[in-house]
Specification:
The chain is mostly helical. Helices cover 79% and strands 0% of the residues.
Length: 100
């Protein structure tokens, strides 16, 4: 569970970076520049794939935390990880279902 929580945090950071990259590229396209935000395309693609897949990992992590809490089998996961995942999840849902 600790490894899964760390992977989820990494993917959530990639989600934030992917949203920022999308915003930068949209603003560059309106100004007429069609080049990517990062000149190293494989890095940008990796960040976007990990970031867009974060909603599934985050949902699975939150459901497993709820299940473990109800079953009273909660492992020691740092509170900041759980809190960060809980705070980012509504933004991910809003981004995927209402913005795109």
């Amino acid at each position: 569970m600790r490894f899964f929580s760390r992977v989820t945090v990494i993917c959530n950071f990639c989600f934030i970076i992917a949203v920022l990259l999308r915003w930068v590229e949209i603003s560059r396209r309106t100004s007429g520049n069609f080049n990517g935000a990062i000149k190293f395309q494989p890095l940008e693609a990796t960040l976007v794939i990990l970031g867009y897949g974060a909603i599934f990992l985050n949902a699975a992590f939150l459901f497993s935390c709820i299940y473990r809490k109800l079953a009273k089998r909660m492992q020691l996961i740092p509170r900041w990880i759980v809190l960060m995942n809980v705070l980012i999840f509504p933004f991910q849902v809003y981004f995927f279902f209402f913005l795109t």
